[in-house]
Amino acid sequence: MLRAALSLLALPLAGAAEEPTQKPESQGEPLPGLELFRWQWHEVEAPYLVALWILVASLAKIVFHLSRKVTSLVPESCLLILLGLVLGGIVLAVAKKAEYQLEPGTFFLFLLPPIVLDSGYFMPSRLFFDNLGAILTYAVVGTLWNAFTTGAALWGLQQAGLVAPRVQAGLLDFLLFGSLISAVDPVAVLAVFEEVHVNETLFIIVFGESLLNDAVTVVLYKVCNSFVEMGSANVQATDYLKGVASLFVVSLGGAAVGLVFAFLLALTTRFTKRVRIIEPLLVFLLAYAAYLTAEMASLSAILAVTMCGLGCKKYVEANISHKSRTTVKYTMKTLASCAETVIFMLLGISAVDSSKWAWDSGLVLGTLIFILFFRALGVVLQTWMLNQFRLVPLDKIDQVVMSYGGLRGAVAFALVILLDRTKVPAKDYFVATTIVVVFFTVIVQGLTIKPLVKWLKVKRSEHHKPTLNQELHEHTFDHILAAVEDVVGHHGYHYWRDRWEQFDKKYLSQLLMRRSAYRIRDQIWDVYYRLNIRDAISFVDQGGHVLSSTGLTLPSMPSRNSVAETSVTNLLRESGSGACLDLQVIDTVRSGRDREDAVMHHLLCGGLYKPRRRYKASCSRHFISEDAQERQDKEVFQQNMKRRLESFKSTKHNICFTKSKPRPRKTGRRKKDGVANAEATNGKPRDLGFQDTAAVILTVESEEEEEESDSSETEKEDDEGIIFVARATSEVLQEGKISGISQATTVCPALC
Amino acid sequence: MGSRSSHAAVIPNVDSIRRETGFSQASLVRLHHRFRALDRNKKGYLSRMDLQQIGALAVNPLGDRIIESFFPNGSQRVDFPGFVRVLAHFRPVEDEDTDQDPKKPEPLNSRRNKLHYAFQLYDLDRDGKISRHEMLQVLRLMVGVQVTEEQLENIADRTVQEADEDGDGAVSFLEFTKSLEKMDVEQKMSIRILK
């Protein structure tokens, strides 16, 4: 049957009309015994199909992105669902029956893991754990609230007669339905939020909620399902208790499985120095194994993979080579993107099969209204409660985005397909409702969330034209605030985080990280600082001639004079941040002075560095590129360091040389090249090198991948970050043979 | 590293600090922990190097100036009271602060003092005025490299002109305050966790 369908499908696609029989191609008389050409469709059928679908999806993506206008308005998920609908329609028309459903088995085993792994691995762990309280509240309490209220309300609707009696469902059935429709879906949230760019706290809360509520959904679904199967009369009190207990078992068990595999993964990557090529493979295999193990034990598989990704990232990143890191990143993104595309497309296709669903207007409308309403209500209540405890409260805009951003997606659909029709007679109605809900949330909410966010924010801002002073000072204050927040330490002292970091430093890192990586991280800032001073000293001692005579400069120092004249239009185009409110000014410009004013505004607007808060959380699946923030960070960092160096230079007379104790750990690496990464600089260390004898500041590119390490505190990993190379000759590194200049100097406080 | 219940008794002169800065006990304890965490070698005071080790400050255009503001009068160390004194500027303004006893000195987190702190970040030579040169320096810090020197100078000129009312070519503190009267300084220069 599948063969026939595919061959029919191959009609429009391949443009060839081949009958799936074994016919030799030659027009002449069929040669008995030996056939020149055979059509072996059935042998390649399954993989060919898979490849073909993925190919279609990718081609569709290319076509979508040809038009920028469309992609900026419409999130990709919508387009994909629509494409799926179209394709499904074609298949239906051609084959007279619907093929290619979203099979729950395929979905849960093959399509969902890459997405979850990708999210778990690239989850900003610091942000995640900072907001863990909020995330857990929304995930557990929120989902339970949604499930029960929706189920109860639908049942009430049925009692009130608004739902046709042909929908045979009791309270338990509705609860079951409520439980599967109430879960916020990680795939949909990711797909839509990555286009919307809300602030990072908001994103992590919604996204974290969508990941963690998997445990709740799984438990609720299973419990309700088994209650329904047992029949509501046989449910006893102990079963309720068991249900509650299973919630803990499922979630904690899933997390534990994930952590075990994270540990294994970190441990194995410690020893892969000679076998670099299998590193990416290990990462994927062990993460996938975590998923499968949790599935096997009926625990929450999504939690397992999330924990695995979160837990292993730090050590794995330290252990594996640079190339492997890139490979892992790209492969994960590719797989996740591909899986997401296929999911949305299949969602569209599955909707076309009308034999699987039955329509009931009351149920559908009721569900739509209830899920929106109860989600909003739930969010408001929980936020009010959470704000009592949170250091940074969530304001109204956040709440609106959170309630509006609770999207349902493929997980709900897969779960509803899994229902047993014999036990749940209303399954078809539920399927139809789920399809409508999923489509509504993804398409309508996905389309409108971006304008909604923009509208809400713009509404709040002031309308008077800001003066130059105000603009400048506003930015200044933002920077000041960011700096003082950093001094104070973000959210203040966290006892448990400190304890964890100590434990990690003492035991875990030693066990799980490769020895070289471990040592590097320890001494990074000290090394950087000392080398900085050494460079300054050597620079000074050479009378500043070296740089000019050899024509070498500190690398890529941005220079103001080397930039071309920018026109207003360029500035307008570049500064698309929305910080410029005065587009109207350009229109009403009359006098020359006003025009100058406007030009200056734009200049300032476009040029000012954006303070940290205004950054957009970039979790894009489609673009892994250095964004404006990293460029800005790089520039600012270089200038800061340059200034600090100059200030050393100016006070050189105060430098006191003291013999410091040899630092065995820093120089422990006897190998020729060492790479030290200034961890304190968020991944943007400067490219400096020095050699003992010449004391020349060289620009060196580090080729060695052996000793490279990356500061990976942030998820925005920059492959082309400036790598700080301390390339010293062996004489320098050997203890006791340190010549005058290259002694590690302890600088007197007077220098600072 | 210390017990969880390390309380205010560990902090020297905690009462006078509280009176001066207006911080609550809990905030002071928190800040004390942070002070100790920053003080890597347990010297009992912070040097510039300790503050420079905060990574995020290195990518902040005003990072160095903020660090400088902790070391007034050219000193090389800052002890805990000094540390807290600077941070007190960023305490959120609460309602009860507004109806203060007029005889008491103005609290450190009043609007005027917040603006004064920012003013001092601009006014490096402490002559009470932001000259055109100082404005230009700040602009250089804050603006990206695609803006040329000449454009920067123009902007600096224009900015000083806008705020300068008495025509002396520099922005005094009063003029600075006046130019920012529409800005919600209390909100912009407050860290909510420092109550």
From TrEMBL, chain B:
GO terms for cellular component: cytoplasm; nucleus; plasma membrane. Keywords: Calcium, Cell membrane, Cytoplasm, Lipoprotein, Membrane, Metal-binding, Myristate, Nucleus, Phosphoprotein, Protein transport, Repeat, Transport. It comes from Aotus nancymaae (Ma's night monkey). The keyword Phosphoprotein applies. GO terms for biological process: protein transport; regulation of calcineurin-NFAT signaling cascade; regulation of protein import into nucleus. CDD domains: EFh (cd00051). One of its GO terms (molecular function) is calcium ion binding. InterPro entries: Calcineurin_B_homologous, EF-hand-dom_pair, EF_Hand_1_Ca_BS, EF_hand_dom. The keyword Nucleotide-binding does not apply. The gene is CHP2. This is Calcineurin like EF-hand protein 2. Its main location: membrane. Residues 26-61, 110-145, 151-186 form the EF-hand domain. It is found in: Cell membrane; Cytoplasm; Nucleus. SMART domains: EFh.
